[in-house]
Fold this protein.
Amino acid sequence: MFKPSGLLIDLDGTLIDSDDRVSPVVATAVKRASTKIPVAVASGREPDEVSHFARMLGLKGPQVCDNGARLIDPLTGRSLYQSPMPEHVSRRLIDSICAAGLTFYAVENGRMVKTKAGFREWVVTIIAANAGDEGTARSTLGKLASDETTSELSTNPDGTFWYTNFVRAGIDKAHGVRQYANILGLDPRDLMAVGDGLNDVSMFSQVGLSVAMGNAPDEVKRHARFVVGRLADDGVAEAVERFVF
């Protein structure tokens, strides 16, 4: 049976619930897995948040942030890899999002920015437009998507709030997986990934063992090799016990 050489786990809806909580059962399973193989969070969230959860779980290796646009050392916060958007692209996106009357968050050189005046250097790895409902998110995606960005929809774990995420063209979680494997000297096909969101599908395409959460949409499940229990049923712990040990 396939045994992974490394494990990547999505954050929202996979590791944590809508209140940013990790269940004790899942925390124990992830910590146990990390004693055997490298374990990383792979998230669209910004570096400080990813570092927080990585440290909480005792993870010390590279972590994937900003939908694959940045990898960090969770202990020091140092960037191990980043691929920012061209400045003219990020400026245009921010102008368009503000003109549409939407709020946003962006990550500039590893720090969170929520207002246009807050930018300093325009070294931006991800921009997320806070759309609210799914219809607005899809409309925003249609209006602002371009050949210069990779754009994806995402939602919070309970599906009540939607975002439209933008990163540099060619950047996604699949890219983050490849960079992660390169840093550790591993083959992506020897890795395992667990996720529940549409942005996890690209990650699934790179690894040897893809696992969807039971709460994932059917579209995500179709791209996974296996499906485990829901977030509320500690699906990550099930995945670890079934496939790591």
In short: The chain has two domains: 6-82+172-243, 87-168. The first strand starts at residue 6 and ends at 9.
